[in-house]
Amino acid sequence: MSDITPDTGSDTGAVPAPPSLILPPVIILCEPQLGENIGTTARAMANFGLKDLRIVNPRDGWPNQRAYAAASRANHVVDAVKVFDRVEDAVADLHFAFATTARSREIPKPVRGPDEAAKTLVTHGSNGLATGVLFGRERWGLNNEEVAFSDEIVTLPVDPTYASLNLAQAVLVIAYEWRKLATGGVLPFHEAHGEPASREELIRLFDHLEGALEDANYFRTEDKKSAMVRQLRNILHKAGLSEQDVKTLRGVVAALQGRKPRAAKLKGPAVTPKGSLLGGVKPTAPTEAEKE
Question: Is residue 2 part of a domain?
């Protein structure tokens, strides 16, 4: 993993500015060992709209083709990577920085969860102030001297018996919390809805269905018919039907009435209204007289 502990200073309930106006946090990797981890980190950043990736003394040098291979088309993040020799240089232009860690440190700094850290990052970013999150080496995280360059610590509520996270996983959690707050949790898409049915289309459906049920002798007693009709209409109203829903239901009713399908692509003999389900009469075999 990397040690992951996000710090969010003030716990304000202010409504964030639009995401395009919020300065995203910088992600800083301290001495990453594998190019693949740099690439998957870039991918996690791109998933949630982060672009500024800085690396300090990468073990295998830079650039690294394995990073590109693992980035899965997040090349814009990898292309823009900035490399530094020292952590203090990587954080020099930041107004607020978090250090991530999975273990307790003998350092008197506030410790935040990822959701709290996101509040601080969004608040500062909304004011145009640069922020960043510092992640340590895959094997042992950050050392105390590196943590000292941060304002606060951020950590995740992991199982203490197995607190190690892959580097990209740790970055992804922080990036997710930041974007969720910065965008108000707006999803990229929603359930597809057709145009709602007009009142006229609903009335035609009611008339069609009620006429078919009348033919099928569904309304057995006249005194209960009006109540039954109201109940049916209420059920259909509550469904919030779309135009396509109404067309589908009318097609179903027509099929049950035994009407010939428009497309006429169905195989086999056509069903007559007399033998339809709603007609309530089963077709009978012809008599000897009818055969003659």
Answer: no
Answer yes or no: do 96 and 133 share one domain.
Answer: yes
Is residue 14 situated within a structural domain? no
153's enclosing H/E stretch is strand 152-154
Q: Residue 111 pairs with which residues in a beta bridge? A: 153
Total structural domains in the chain? 2
Q: Is the dihedral of CA 167, 117, 84, 146 positive or negative?
A: negative
Q: What DSSP designation does 109 have? A: -
Q: How many Å apart are CA 45 and CA 65, to the nearest integer?
A: 18
Q: Do residues 117 and 98 make contact, with C-beta atoms less than 8 angstroms apart?
A: yes
pTM of the model: 0.68
Q: What is the pLDDT of residues 207-229, one digit of tens each?
A: 999 999 988 989 888 888 999 99
Contacts 24+ apart (CB under 8 A), 10-18: 10/119, 10/120, 10/123, 11/116, 11/119, 12/119, 12/123, 14/123, 14/126, 16/122, 16/123, 16/126, 16/181, 16/182, 16/184, 17/126
71 and 125 in a single domain? The answer is: yes
